[in-house]
Design goal:
684 residues, alpha+beta, Rossmann fold, Elongation Factor Tu (Ef-tu), domain 3, Alpha-Beta Plaits, 5 domains, eight-stranded antiparallel β-sheet, seven-stranded mixed β-sheet, 35 strands, elongated
Length: 684
């Protein structure tokens, strides 16, 4: 970690992002090994990497969490974040962009440009991160690197330029920017001179003085281009392309040189998007990488370590964070004491004394820490937050309950811990169906959650698809009556209720009206009548779902001076309501949701046809960053496991979000089916 403020200039922070097939973790191992941070590179297949230390990651042979690594190379201290590549784990990879100056998008030379690479480039651009493209697996058989560079420039722009080139069929990599005097072997495509000229011309364009020098002199010494080069990176005017093979180590030293000599330090990158204030009144707040100012730090990752406890991983943006200092979490008025500061190297915690702007470190055992928290040391610095990330909405639900009775609270506590670690997990209790439902970004996301529950926390659970929250209503006025009379030898039970029901507008809810005259039902028994009515509404009449959007008017009844009791009027009210609803042409309602599906343009016809087969109604299309967006409404019941169908229609490139819209009557055939199922259940 940095020890003096002067070392801030020697800090580099980058997140390795991109598809799961690109070899990010193996590349991190190669970088750590070549820089001397580890003795030998680990293997994903053997489960020996520094980055993928979680037992579930080793079992799955893929990254499931963002992990923090450090290396030192030629006087530079680099913080690396290795992120998962599966779209289901965007809750781990997207927050890493908030902690770094540079997003390094890793692309496999064998797989080419995959959707995840496109999405991460777009998100990095939206957050104004410097971008670096790393082409891995350059030594694989049959790869066409020249064609891949052309494709990169077509998809991401002509500002994507190689800073080095592969040679000897990917066995070596030749620098094209720093060491023109030491060109080495011929390259597999293009030439060092051509690539160098393209880079210099791209960089000098941001500075008129350098443009004039370049036109007059024909070249500019790269050592003089540091400031315009950093400006070009900040503005996205230059996106460097590097070539490596994590397997053989080809290009790894050159990539380390790029990290040390080309990537920005904390004072050269774009500042974080801090805001001060709430809502529309929030104003940008500039955080300066100055160790003498008050502290501003951002928690971008939360973990629950079995030995260390709750751990908040944070990036220091301003000021000096020291062990023993006092910090505030967001708008909290009570500070907490920083007991220990840690540097992270995979699962290893190393205690440090302080952290400067640009440093990434961790604080443990502070219950107040939470994802996206802003830490500061000035009580007046309230209402400071980062511009929210645009996370995909978790729509894949799974109803979950403990296998053993009595484990409900334990399961609830574990799920809350897991949800606190991942902003793309959501836990809801659905009162209508009395289910706890956990929502994630996909089947892999939820399957990993279940494995963590059973393998790590030893909590056995039962899961099933969530029940659809149907509703019942009425479509016509009707009346109901019930006399409850029970004689058991002593004091009996007696209560009689006359009521009528009237339909209300959709979404109006429930109204209870007392129109009883002359004390036919004494006022002290009217709450019991209402309780009986509400019990019937909650239990349902047609198919066992809550009855909504109706007015219940109690207009007459009878009582007995001795035998009338609350229980008698509860029963009479409940059964009178059931009789009235059955006579009021009851209808079953289903939830309708807004659907937004993003997919390649060539898949849109298949998607709209599939939606029509699911009783969906397409309202239009809109442009989207990675194709087109289809806007539609559809019954929620028709979209169970829809991602699997969408994957089949789009080759895995489609995503969708759901948002509740309204309730609508189900088709008669479906109502008959649900009512029949309910009767069978009641009879059994």
């Amino acid at each position: 970690m940095a020890t003096t403020s002067a070392d801030i200039a020697a800090l580099r922070t980058l997140a390795l992002v991109g598809p799961a097939t690109s070899g990010k973790t193996s590349l991190v191992e190669a970088l750590l090994h070549k820089s001397g941070a580890i003795g030998a590179p680990g293997s994903v297949e053997r489960g020996s990497t520094v980055s993928d230390y979680d037992p579930l990651e080793r079992k799955a042979q893929r990254s499931l969490n963002a992990s923090l690594l450090n290396l030192r190379y030629r006087g530079v201290h680099a913080h690396l974040i290795d992120t998962p590549g599966a779209p289901d784990f965007l809750g781990q990879s997207l927050p890493a962009l908030e902690a770094v100056e540079t997003a390094a998008v890793v692309i496999s030379a064998t797989a080419g440009i995959e959707p995840m690479a496109v999405r991460m480039m777009q998100w990095a651009a939206q957050r104004e991160r410097d971008r670096l493209i790393i082409v891995n697996k350059i030594d694989a058989q049959g790869v066409n690197l020249e064609a891949l560079v052309q494709q990169i420039q077509e998809v991401f722009g002509r500002e994507c330029l190689p800073v080095n080139l592969p040679a000897e069929r990917g066995a070596k990599v030749v620098d094209c920017f720093f060491n023109m005097a030491q060109q080495g072997p011929g390259t597999d495509f293009s030439s060092v001179e051509q690539a160098h000229r393209a880079l210099v011309e791209q960089v000098v364009e941001v500075d008129a003085a350098f443009v004039e020098r370049y036109l007059n002199d024909g070249d500019v010494d790269p050592s003089e281009l540091h400031a315009p080069l950093e400006q070009a990176l900040r503005e996205g005017h230059l996106i460097p392309i590097c070539f490596v093979s994590a397997r053989t180590g080809a290009g790894v030293p050159e990539l380390l040189d790029v990290i040390a000599r080309l990537l920005p330090n904390p004072s050269e990158g774009n500042p974080p998007a801090f805001l001060k204030g709430e809502g529309d009144e929030a104003q940008p707040l500039l955080a300066l990488p100055d160790p003498s100012l008050h502290v501003l730090a951002h928690v971008f990752k939360i973990t629950q370590d079995p030995y260390v406890g709750k751990v908040g991983v944070l990036r220091v943006h301003q000021g000096t964070l020291s062990a023993g200092s006092q910090l505030y979490v967001g708008d909290a008025r009570r500070p907490f004491k920083v007991g220990h500061l840690f540097a992270l190297q995979g699962k290893e915690f190393t205690e440090i004394a302080r952290a400067f702007p640009g440093d990434i470190c961790a604080i443990s055992k502070v219950d107040e820490l939470h994802f996206d928290a802003v830490l500061h040391d000035a009580p007046e610095d309230d209402h400071i937050h980062l511009k929210p990330l645009d996370f995909p909405v978790p729509v894949h639900g799974l109803a979950i309950e403990p296998k053993r009775r009595g484990d409900e609270q334990r399961l609830h506590d574990i799920l809350h811990k897991l949800v606190s670690e991942d902003p793309c997990l959501r836990l809801d209790h659905v009162a209508v169906t009395n289910e706890s439902v956990v929502y994630g970004l996909g089947e892999l996301h939820l399957r990993t959650l279940l494995e963590r529950l059973t393998d790590v926390h030893k909590c056995e659970v039962i899961t099933r698809p969530p029940r659809i929250a149907y509703r019942e209503t009425i479509t016509a006025p009707a009346e109901g009556h019930h006399r409850h009379k029970k004689q058991t030898g002593g004091a009996g039970q007696f209560g009689e209720v006359f009521l009528r029901v009237e339909p209300l507008a959709r979404g109006a809810g429930f109204e209870f009206v007392d129109h009883v005259k002359g004390g036919a039902i004494p006022y002290n028994f009217m709450p019991a009548v209402e309780k009986g009515v509400r019990l019937a509404l909650e239990a349902g009449v047609v198919a066992g779902y809550p009855v909504v959007d109706l007015r219940v008017i109690v207009y007459d009844g009878k009582h007995h001076t001795v035998d009338s009791k609350e229980i008698a009027f509860i029963t009479a009210g409940r059964k009178a309501l059931v009789a009235a609803v059955q006579a009021a042409r009851p209808s079953l309602l289903e939830p309708i949701v807004h659907v937004e599906i993003t997919a390649p343009e060539q898949s849109i016809g298949d998607i709209t046809g599939d939606l029509a087969s699911r009783r969906g109604q397409v309202s239009g299309t809109d442009s989207a960053a990675s194709g087109l967006a289809v806007l539609a409404q559809a019954p929620l019941s028709e979209l169970a496991s829809y991602q699997s169908r969408l994957n089949a229609l789009t080759g895995g490139q489609g995503r969708f979000t759901l948002e509740f819209s309204h309730y609508e009557a189900v088709p008669p055939a479906l109502q008959s089916q649900l009512a029949s199922q309910y009767r069978v259940k009641e009879e059994s």
